[in-house]
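General statements about sequence and structure are easier to judge against a single worked case. When preparing material for the folding task, we compiled for one chain both its residues and its backbone structure tokens. The amino acid sequence and the backbone structure tokens for this protein are reproduced below:
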Amino acid sequence: MIDPRAIVDPSAVIGENVSIGPWSIIGPDVQIGDGCEIASHVVVKGPTIMGSNNKIYQFSTIGDDTPDLKYNGEPTRLVIGDNNVIREGVTIHRGTVQDNSETRIGNDNLLMAYVHVGHDCIVGDHVIMVNNASISGHVTVGDWTILSGYALVHQFVHIGPHCFIGPAAFTYHDVPAFVTAFGSPAEPRTINREGLKRRGFSTEQIALANKAYKLLYRRGLQLDEAIKAIGDLGDDAVIKMLLSSLENSSRGIIR
């Protein structure tokens, strides 16, 4: 299932039932798990570890080194999980030694055409990045988050789980869990009500999330006051999720 016109380095480890299209290049120090589909004109460089059942479309470049000027050829890697769809022209860079030397993509993600994932990023599970969305180095994107087309995320920003970032939004600061953000710079608008509903959260949990959001953004409280007030709402999963994203913020949250 490897096209004879593909170039596969002898040291690459290729799993079972893997297809590799014509004119694709699989470099040294690359591991590709079972059932992956690599289209034509794809470049995969190592060190890269890829799980099972990933599908990579044409003209994507996976696992190249970063253009970060601090990078000096040190050994770093890219780790990709299972069941990801990586569409046309996507670029994903390996990490740098200034961070954890690793870029990580989770499971069941959809990266649409021309998405860019910079060095040392961590992308969770079930994330959707729409066409031309780009995340700079050291960015974390939580599970079930959607980055709309042309959304841009600044270095070191943390985006919590279940967030929705609007089209062409430029995110300079951290986005708390289940918050929707629009604009440049991105500003909070409301909770991601539809996203929470689709993910199986109850009506009561969504109402609780909305109450917590209002404490954070509609009551004029200082951040530490808002965190205390949100904590007083109980220990439901949505409250824990929001508090975790607030307490782990390092750049400050969008306001």
Remarks:
- Residues 197 and 203 are 8 Å apart (CA to CA).
- The helical segments are 193-198, 203-217, 223-231, 237-247.
